[in-house]
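Help needed: design a sequence for this.
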């Protein structure tokens, strides 16, 4: 659903006026002056809320996610607010992943980062799908890290882009690198489904377009089966590009904003630039992750005088995926297993071959 009826937005707003005060606190705009530290924040003071002053745009996002149905959109938003309150999401950026070497291990095995901006000012989020192993920490750390990056995007990156361009910017584009995608990815299907469900239910309509690049055969085989299962709204957002996608992506962004794995053919997620790791937006040494890391540390410093922070993962309740999400996850799992069976069958056949001697 591309255009939302403004009457529906008004009805939605009236319904939201009646929610509990605890939920309103997480939803309504409230700014906090941050403690001034020796290192300035990368983008100024954050606004800790969902709509950041853009109520109409936020209600429109939830309406789009429920095809314009006001009652369903209202339930979705109330469920989202309950999830935020019950899991203390408003304070998740004050809860670091410690010790630092564990945080680095999470970053090295959950590949995502900000590579730049499109010509229209939308953040470009790069995701190393094929080479993310999720094997250096418990699932709770990976979920915590993912939500922290979502919150940093919404509280810091998008407001800064809005201010810079003088107009509302509330979405991003994502470039998904499939380099290195293997059958072993099947081991992470439950974690990936949980993360995807959290995004679908609590951060709806935050991505304009998904560009998929460096596609191996195993993805192509799965995509043919999964694509018909997706809602039309979702299908329209996904573009599978040829090769590293450089030429197509340069139509919407400058070369400097291209993710490192799109800059030349064969430049997958693990390749480094001539300048080391600084152009690799997955690296903790990249400027984006340094800003996120410093920002979280500043948030922690502002509350440590009240109570010391204890190490340990931040447990977030995993919402149940909707029927469509469950069906897609099962289909992907089934296709991966079929591919594995075919691969094993070919391997066994080759092992059984005998060369006859005349």
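Sure. Designed sequence:
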């Amino acid at each position: 659903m591309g255009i939302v009826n403004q009457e529906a937005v008004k009805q939605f707003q009236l319904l939201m006026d009646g929610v509990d005060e605890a939920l309103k606190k997480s939803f309504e705009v409230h700014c906090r002056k941050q403690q001034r530290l020796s290192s300035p924040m990368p983008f100024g003071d954050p606004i800790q809320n969902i709509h950041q002053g853009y109520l109409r745009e936020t209600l429109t996002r939830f309406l789009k996610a429920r095809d314009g149905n006001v009652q369903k959109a209202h339930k979705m938003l109330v469920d989202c607010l309950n999830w935020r309150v019950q899991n203390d999401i408003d304070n998740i950026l004050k809860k670091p992943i410690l010790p630092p070497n564990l945080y680095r291990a999470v970053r090295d095995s959950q590949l995502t980062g900000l590579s730049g901006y499109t010509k229209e000012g939308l953040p470009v989020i790069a995701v190393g799908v094929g080479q993310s192993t999720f094997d250096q920490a418990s699932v709770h750390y990976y979920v915590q890290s993912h939500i922290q990056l979502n919150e940093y995007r919404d509280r810091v990156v998008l407001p800064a882009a809005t201010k810079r361009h003088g107009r509302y910017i509330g979405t991003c584009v994502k470039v998904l690198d499939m380099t290195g995608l293997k059958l072993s990815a099947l081991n992470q299907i439950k974690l990936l489904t949980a993360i995807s469900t959290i995004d679908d239910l609590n951060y709806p309509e935050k991505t304009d377009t998904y560009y998929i690049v460096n596609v191996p055969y195993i993805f192509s085989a799965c995509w043919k089966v999964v694509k018909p299962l997706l809602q039309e709204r979702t299908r329209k957002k996904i573009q599978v590009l040829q090769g590293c996608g450089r030429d197509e992506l340069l139509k919407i962004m400058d070369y400097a904003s291209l993710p490192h794995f799109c800059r030349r053919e064969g430049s997958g997620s693990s390749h480094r630039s001539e300048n080391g790791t600084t152009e690799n937006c997955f690296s903790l040494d990249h400027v984006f992750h340094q800003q996120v890391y410093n920002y979280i540390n500043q948030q922690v410093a502002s509350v440590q005088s009240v109570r010391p922070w204890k190490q340990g993962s931040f447990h977030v309740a995993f919402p149940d995926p909707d029927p469509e999400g469950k069906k897609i996850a099962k289909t992907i799992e089934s296709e991966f297993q079929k591919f594995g069976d075919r691969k094993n069958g070919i391997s066994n056949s080759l092992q059984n071959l005998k060369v006859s001697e005349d």
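The first strand starts at residue 112 and ends at 117.
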